[in-house]
Amino acid sequence: MGILVEDKKGSHQKKVKKVMKMLSIIVIGNNSELLKISLDSIKNQTFKDYEIIISDQSSKDINRAIKKSRGKLIKFLLQGDYFYRPDSLEEIINNFDLNKDHWLVTACEHTKNGINLFWPQYPRYNDEIHITQNTIGTLSSLTIKNENPLFLDKKLTSLADGDYYKRYFKRFGNPKIMNKINVVNRTGNGQISKEAAGKEYRHILKKYNKRELLKKYDNRVIEKLELKNVTLVSISSIEAMEITAENINFREIILTKQDDFAKYLNTDFALIIHHDGYVLRPYKWDNAFLEYDFIGNDTFSLRSKKFIKKDKNIKVATDNIQKKFSGEKDSFGFSKNKNLIPRFFVIKKRLKRFLGK
Question: pTM (2 decimals)?
Answer without folding.
Answer: 0.62
